[in-house]
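Newbie here. two chains, one complex. Structure please?
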Amino acid sequence: MYNIGIDVGGTSIKAGLVEDGIITVKASKDVDKSMGFYGVVRDIEYVVNEILREKGMTIEEVRTIGIGIPGVVNKDGHVSCVNLGLKNDPLEMKLKEIFSNVKIVVENDANVAAFAEYKYGSMRGYDVGVMITLGTGVGGGIIINGKPFSGAHGIGSELGHIILDSNYYDCNCGNNGCFETFCSATAIIKYAQKLIGEGKKSTILQFAQNNIENITAKMVFDAYKENDEVAISVVKRFKEYLIRGIVSIVHFIDPEIISIGGGVSNANEIILDGLEEELNKRVIYNGNGIAKIVIAHFKNDAGILGASAL
Amino acid sequence: MYNIGIDVGGTSIKAGLVEDGIITVKASKDVDKSMGFYGVVRDIEYVVNEILREKGMTIEEVRTIGIGIPGVVNKDGHVSCVNLGLKNDPLEMKLKEIFSNVKIVVENDANVAAFAEYKYGSMRGYDVGVMITLGTGVGGGIIINGKPFSGAHGIGSELGHIILDSNYYDCNCGNNGCFETFCSATAIIKYAQKLIGEGKKSTILQFAQNNIENITAKMVFDAYKENDEVAISVVKRFKEYLIRGIVSIVHFIDPEIISIGGGVSNANEIILDGLEEELNKRVIYNGNGIAKIVIAHFKNDAGILGASAL
């Protein structure tokens, strides 16, 4: 019996057949956002059939299809996702109709990534873990007693929207001061643009070919390595809020391990430098130890691997 | 068989025999802080023996002794508490030696209060619940799957020390911007003192007999009811941060219910007024419902009741 993992993204749906923690067959399809729920269901059906065809097997040989969704999943498998035009749609039920006798499990994608790190990656062996995904936004995944935890209404583990401070711009969610307005790639870029826009000279602007719209988080970290003053300010601010976010996470659920993933985590040396020492200073009681901080293991395959293991 | 609950506080140790959720026999003793671990153990032994004597029964008839401690409890029952001079002391083990054949369970006191609300009070029937205790500080208790949850090293559920904003004074814990520096009784008093100290006229000062050192949180809420401008500013700020704290809690673990207790919660009408509406506006996705907000049921007996049920 086989398990299939499906990673539903904003632009493509990727599926994989996972055997012993390794993706042996892959399939993917661009999503047609205009088709909404119907389109998502049809695309999932398509990638599953591609995998069956490629592997030369039938649906009867599949035990579980796990699906990660970039949105909110409630207890009975209804999903909502602004980017895909889904609003409380019965995804789990619909897929159960299509793939009868296969176990269907739907989860939020950040929780799926955390579960991949728990099953196969950086959080393996730790029963209480938190994953922070620093990308365009900040995502969060929580593992409690070896299972993804997303709360009573599917809106838990939205760590990007815990509030850390007042900020100079509002979050997309409508609040001010969300974690993701300080520590996402977007936040890093915005703050570099702000300092440069205020007239500060920086190597970052050269990297961006003199157009602040071209600035990326990578450019900021590259300039930081060259001791660029603007980059130092931006990275210092980013790290201060990353620490505050982690302090809040530790004082909230005190995990055994915190894994940092997402594109920004490519700057792993800069992120980890001094982080545990600083955390030790700020946590209210560290006599029994504090969460270990690590960089996530998986980049692109976490969605498929985690979903297949749900 | 009987269960005994013990509430170890900074000034006294209270114990109760609990039958069907009702305390039928009580005993208490002032603590002698100078005696440290030895004193705490001796005092616990004393109150347990008082209960046995009063009830006319033997220790063989006791199934469980549950103990709530105002500090950190690690996985193997070692406790640390600055106020009582405890530092990683083996409380559970020591009590097991004394009361052989009785099950001994030690927990953080805020988690014990949350457990009392879960077993007998405002959070009854809700398997994922958070209790926020607004007192001299801000405490937190988390129930997950019907059990108190305090994380991997006993420092979870310290909700008073999640960080919400920059504040004009530092927290006792050394950080800046902790929940308890905005929403504890102390925070309310400090901010009223600050505004009055800056020269603002207020009924609060009359209530305090013209001495700002006499100000209490109750005086602020009483003045608020009389439309006092300073009180309105203080309560507005308190409620703004209470909402931010609750938004962070919801985005973090999305409980079914949040119960607000502690002395400040006596101002229940002022606290609940408009709270759920505002929360609905600020939570990123409310399509599946949001945590219910209630006022805690128990005042003084939560420690004994919760501990007896551990």
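Moderator note: Chain B has two domains: 2-101, 123-295. Chain B touches chain A through 54 residues (CB under 8 Å). Thread marked as resolved.
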